[in-house]
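Course assignment 3, question 2. Fill in each field.
Student: A.L.
Task: Predict the tertiary structure for the chain below.
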Amino acid sequence: IIKYTAEMNIKHRKDFIEDIKEKDIDMNTKQSVIQMYKNAEPDYYELHFTEDKSYYFKDKSLENEQYNLGSKAGLAPYYYNLTAKQLVEDSRSFGYVAHKPLDWEIANETKMIGDFKCYKATTTETLYSRQGHYYDREVVAWFTPDIPYKYGPKNYVGLPGLVLQVERKEFTITATKINLNPDGDKLKIKRVGKDEKVISHEEMTKRIAEKMKDYNKR
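Answer field:
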């Protein structure tokens, strides 16, 4: 069981606030959004895994009762079946969504995260916005071969070692507690049933585009 903390990056927070100050929207809305970004607190996640399966999810027990914009690192759980190479997001809006593996490039750069020597890996992730367009995000992952499992937060998996940190423009996710010998009854791995409908990432983007078209018409 690995516990992660996700925090909104300071530069992203600052850039967003400066950008919204220039937007042509009413002052009350503008001030409300700025305060949400200023008051954004970290999010907490857990990764539970066995030899061939993992489940990554948000730890809701640590959530503040008041609304928190959070880290921007997402709400959806992810299930990864290493043997079947099945990586599935449990989306609140679209149900189960399959993700294709990311194409990682491993560098020679290293750093210590806790007691573990980690290696740098980079990739470009293509995402689809709710405004109806594709955009790219550079992703940096730090993984340790000392824990030889190809798991990590969200869909950042497939590297030759456990991912202990992920850096993206909006947020950074960092492992804060590592328990490699948990009690079996504490492991929570929600599997995707054989009869469950799983749509492709392309199908999800198509549905987003259709929803945006209907929204714009209204």
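Instructor remarks: The chain has three helices and twelve strands. Residues 83 and 170 are 31 Å apart (CA to CA).
Grade: pending
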